[in-house]
Amino acid sequence: MAFNNNNLDTLYRQVIMDHYKNPRNRGSLEDETLTIDMNNPTCGDRIHLTLKVEDGIVTDAKFDGEGCSISMSSASMMTQAIKGQPIDNAMKLSTIFSDMMQGKEYDEDIDLGDIEALQGVSKFPARIKCATLAWKAMEKGLNNEQK
């Protein structure tokens, strides 16, 4: 069966809703973790992100918070994507995600997995901050870790 845009949009919506209803890595880490709290005052989304970094590798990531389906599913996808990644790779993924949200060209050779489902958000400028909240929190935490 050939995929048209409607089928792809439906598939992407299903992936987003799956992450929203069944979030991966929801919760909080204890002991020697980076803790970042951020919110989006425009819509009320908020995130509490905890990251464990050992020898320059993000060994674990969990999030908690509340917000819309885009915000929470993006946090779920982001924590999945960065676990086990060197800090540089996690930051590169964040840059690619930011470019995707702004409708810019990005390296399509990199497998974004479920994250690709969020590319349609770029058509809705008011929702971009929802999608990028968790990523901004991760960047803030890892930038502080590198200092």
UniProtKB/TrEMBL annotation:
Coiled-coil region(s): none
Domain (NIF system FeS cluster assembly NifU N-terminal) ranges: 12-130
SUPFAM superfamilies associated with the record: SufE/NifU (SSF82649)
A GO molecular-function annotation: iron ion binding
CDD domains: IscU_like
InterPro entries with a match to the protein in the record: NIF_FeS_clus_asmbl_NifU_N (IPR002871)
A single BP term in Gene Ontology: iron-sulfur cluster assembly
Family to which the UniProt record says this protein belongs: Belongs to the NifU family.
Protein name: Nitrogen fixation protein NifU
Organism this protein belongs to: Litchfieldia salsa
Lineage, broadest ranks: Bacteria, Bacillati, Bacillota, Bacilli, Bacillales
